[in-house]
Each structure stands twice: as C-alpha cells, then as structure tokens.
Amino acid sequence: MAEEAIHYLEPEKGGNFIDATLGFGGHSERLLELLPEGSWLVGIDQDQTAAEYCRKRLVGYEARLDIVEKSFRCMGGVVNELGMEEVDGILFDLGVSSFQLDNAERGFSFSKPGPLDMRMDLSQGLTAADIVNCYSEEELASIIKNFGEERWAKRIARFIVKERADRPFATTADLVDTMRRAIPSKVRHGNKLHFATRTFQALRIAVNDELEALEEGLEAAFNHLKQGGKMVIITFHSLEDRIVKRSLKRWSQGGLDQQKLRILTRKPVLPSTDETGLNPRSRSAKMRVAVKV
Predict the structure, then answer these.
(1) N or C: which end of the chain has fewer CB within 10 A?
(2) Distance CA 4, CA 234 (A)
(3) Residue 83: which residues within 8 A CB-CB, separation 6 or more?
(4) pLDDT at site 256
C-alpha cells in the first residue's frame, strides 16, 4: 500500500519524516524521491540485515537520510538524539517483512524448514526455541491463545511439552510436525488458513514483544508529531489493528495536554484487488491515518 501511504503523508510538501519500519527500503525510497531539498528522513529498523541492505539501496540520499538500528519503541530517544523535536509524518508498516519470511534461516515461516529463531533483532537473546523448550505448559497455552487467537492452544501446548521431554525443538519443521499431530485432521483440512499460522504468529509476537513495542512506538509518535503532521499505520492482524484503533480513538478525544488527533480514515483503507493479486500477503493489510490538530 505504498502509494496510499504516500498520498496521505504528502512528502512533496517537505519537512521531517520517520519511516518507523524501514524494512528493505521500499517506502523510504519512494519518500526520498518526493521529498524536496532541505527535508529529512529517518529510517528505523531493529533488523541489522535490513538496515545494512538499505544503506546500499539508498546510496545517494545520505545527505538527508539517517538509518537507525533500533526498535521503533525507542523512537522518542532517536528523535531527541537527532535534534528533530517534531516531525511532519510518521509511517508504520507493521509485521514481518517478505524478506524475513522468505529467508529460512530466520525461522519465521512454517513453510520453510529452518532454525526456530524468529528474532527481528538478532542481537537479542530470546528465541522461539527458548520459549518452546523452556516455558511451562500454561505459559505456552497463554501465548498461543492470546497472541495467536488459536482455539487449540491448550492442546498444542500439551503436545509440545510432551514431545520436548524426549527431544528439544530445534527447527520450524519440528514444531510443524508436532502441531500436525496436535490439531485434529478435520480442522487442519477444513480451514483455508494453514494450521500453523496462528501459533507461529503468537511465538513471533512473544519473541519480539511486538504488542508492547507497538504501544510504546505509537505513544512516541503521537508525542513527536507536529501540529498538522500525519501518522500512517499499516497493520496485518487483528491484535495490532485493535491497539492502533484504540490509541487513535483515545488521542482523538484529547489527552491531558489537550493535544488531539483527527482520524482521517473512518474505516481502514484496504489494499486494491490489483495489489492483492500481485502480492497475496497484502490481503490482510489495513491502513489507518490520523493528523495532529
């Protein structure tokens, strides 16, 4: 939904912008193409591989681009360190990137055998394997139910604990095999959604503390957005969208300092049929936009 995001952010008017989820630079490149001289873009990403890739992809824009290897939950500190104070536009494109999904070594995908990792920041210690092998049955069930909204969470957790007693889980294939046994056949074959989708989502969210990070990142974005500045957020699952919707509604009603947002998208903007045809992964995307007043 790059063009829709650009439409709302209006970079051609100039100013200071933040791409809070730099990824592999698609949105940032488009912003930099349209930003006039004297404007500034900060790209933030906790994935070191993505940041390094963008330093090569965005060569030529160094004079008005800063790439910061941190989580967007640290946005407030980043803005202060760079002396920006307030910004004209902030973009969040949440979730896991196609590169991360397609790279089996990162362990995000249930369809590609690889290590059970799922870390967006490779410098952190906790991995999906740590959670699967060390957390209690009750903790696993809670994570899978609350972060994956998986109805079979307790059964999956029970199977995991039973099977790890014989051999620790090491790969994504190990986990998928266990889930195949845990989830009844009629459920696995009667659902369009792959049976491992919700559990993998839940583990990824837990490993990267994604929901807490989103709360903190949105708060920082609201605090540093200037009057007339816009915030664009693209989500890919209901838990993210719920947090975004709730936060925008709260700020639209005014905070203690009476600063407010005006929501520009009464209903979320959805990807076009053409986009979902070219990129099936975009079909679950929802975009919400607000302006500070």
Answers:
(1) C
(2) 10
(3) none
(4) 57
Task: Tell me the whole-structure pTM to 2 decimals.
Answer: 0.92
* Residue 286 to residue 288: CA distance in whole angstroms: 7
In the sheet with 87-93, reading across from the earlier edge strand, the strands are: 65-68, 40-44, 16-19, 87-93, 225-235, 286-292, 261-263
Q: Which long-range contacts (CB under 8 A, 24 or more apart) does 266-269 make?
A: 268/241, 269/1, 269/4
Helices and strands (H and E) in the chain: how many: 14, 7
Mean pLDDT by groups of 10 residues along the chain of 293 residues: 92 96 94 94 94 94 94 95 92 87 90 94 95 98 97 97 96 96 88 91 97 97 95 95 95 74 93 78 89 95
Average pLDDT, the chain: 93
- Using DSSP's 3-state secondary structure scheme, residue 234 falls into strand
Distances (CA, A) of 196 to 33, 120, 140, 200: 39, 20, 15, 6
**Can you tell me the distance from the alpha carbon of 50 to that of 130, in angstroms, rounded to the nearest whole number?**
24
What are the residues facing 288 on neighbouring strands?
A: 233
Helix (H) or strand (E) holding 41: strand 40-44
**Maximum distance among all Cα pairs of the chain, rounded to whole angstroms:** 62
What is the DSSP code (8-state) at residue 171? Answer: B
